[in-house]
Design a protein that fits this description.
alpha+beta; Type Iii Antifreeze Protein Isoform Hplc 12; two-stranded antiparallel sheet; 10 strands; 21% strand
Length: 268
């Protein structure tokens, strides 16, 4: 009985060896030796930069273990914009390119219809909330000339970004947890960019050139409250700047010289 078991184990081992030698190994060899064309970065491409023949080219590489979404030809990516930094030698994944330019300020890529982004100057440390503002904050804008005044149109506005005097975003999300090993000077905020209606933007422009603007924090990290406050501000704007009433215009008519409304009905 023991002899028979050893015999069977020997036969199975020979069969398994034959499968590995004549089936598995050739299959793996074909896969690892297979070639395909991919697009590879030839010089560093920063986020938002366009992919062109100057910074990318098609090369032939082994096809084994390549991601499914790797770009295989220049027509797949030429003229598209990088959504992440790409270093020399990187191959391009379709998930890392976009048909639209990517700004360093993500919020500026999706300004709602009827709104604008406008910046205001932070003239002193105190007027800018001691350099503590962050994107997404809901703030109230006060104005001081001869006396402090609250501006109804600017009671609740959303901060899109905070930048220093060079236009570089200031990151105030780290609090006091600074890396003291880095010899980097913290830049004070010089401007704050907010989301505004055209009416609000006009008022900000006027305030910029007359007196000092002070910013007060109303809400942070509370999406529900932020939505409620912004809705309340929209109601205030609708009250202060009601939609224009229908305008009556004159239309030439062969039957009457009386003015008619825009809908085409005759004036009473």
């Amino acid at each position: 009985m023991k002899v028979n078991n050893r015999f069977l184990f020997g036969i199975l081992s020979l069969v398994l060896s034959a499968v590995i030698a004549f089936v598995a190994l050739p299959t793996i060899n074909r896969q690892t030796n297979g070639k395909t064309s991919i697009v590879r970065i030839t010089q560093t491409v920063l986020t938002g930069e366009k992919i062109t023949e100057d910074n990318a080219k098609v090369v032939e590489v082994g096809s084994y273990n390549l991601p499914q979404n790797v770009a295989h030809s220049m027509k797949d990516v030429q003229g598209l914009y990088a959504t992440a930094n790409l270093a020399q030698g990187d191959y391009i994944l379709t998930s890392k390119v976009s048909t639209t330019p990517i700004s360093s300020d993500v919020a500026l890529n999706s300004i709602p219809s009827g709104k604008v982004a406008i910046s205001l100057t932070v003239k002193t440390l105190a007027s800018g909330l001691s350099d503590k503002l962050q994107p997404g904050d809901i703030i109230r804008i006060y104005h001081f000339l001869d006396e402090a005044k609250e501006i109804p149109e600017l009671s609740f506005v959303k901060v899109l970004s905070v930048t220093d005097s060079d236009g570089v975003n200031v990151d105030n999300t780290q609090g006091e947890a600074k890396d003291t090993t880095e010899d980097v000077e913290h830049q004070q905020a010089a401007t704050v960019t907010i989301l505004a209606s055209p009416e609000q933007a006009k008022i900000v422009t006027e305030l910029e050139n007359d007196g000092v603007i002070h910013l007060a924090l109303i809400s942070r990290n509370n999406d529900k409250l932020a939505e409620e406050l912004l809705d309340k501000q929209e109601e205030t704007l609708a009250t202060l700047y009601p939609p224009a009433a229908g305008i009556t215009v004159e239309k030439p008519s062969s039957d009457t010289d009386e003015p008619v409304s825009e809908s085409g009905s005759e004036g009473e």
